[in-house]
Specification:
2 helices, 37% strand, globular, Thiol Ester Dehydrase, Chain A, alpha+beta
């Protein structure tokens, strides 16, 4: 069953200027891989804002992405400034779906939309562990219809 738009909550948004180095093809389009970097940047910003442990070798647990998808609606060209939003879906025991919109910061143009499954893991064991309360409290409660 697909998750309804109303079961998503806005978690975080950033305004990101497109860098010259993000552009790779002969037509002046931003490289497709950069879109995933923009999504990553907003995701890491949100995690830091809600109190995730320090990232890197000192972290004992945290998030990993087990799948990511992007639908490219319109090419981004340099120069541009993007507004990247991250929404969250209802949490499961160890994961939640995140949703992204990449749009022009000054106009009503959606360049891309994306999703990524965020799983909380113990880095030493490599195993999924329950999502911490400080993450879950920002996500929508799933309506079970009962």
């Amino acid at each position: 069953m697909a998750m309804d738009e109303k079961k998503r909550v806005l978690l975080y948004a950033l305004t990101i200027p497109v860098r010259w180095g993000d552009m790779m093809d002969a037509l002046g389009h931003v490289n497709n891989a950069a879109y995933f970097s923009y999504m990553e940047q907003v995701r890491i910003g949100w995690l830091a804002s809600v109190g995730a442990e320090a990232f890197g070798p000192s972290a004992r647990e945290g998030s990993v992405i087990v799948n990511a998808c992007c639908t490219f609606n319109k090419p981004v060209t340099y120069p541009a400034t993007l507004r990247v939003q991250m929404h969250g879906g209802a949490p499961g025991r160890t994961s939640f779906e995140s949703y992204y919109t990449l749009q022009d910061a000054a106009a009503d143009v959606v360049y891309a939309t994306g999703t990524a499954r965020v799983v909380w893991v113990n880095y030493a064991s490599g195993r999924a562990i329950p999502l911490p309360a400080f993450v879950c409290r920002h996500l929508p409660v799933e309506d079970t219809g009962g």
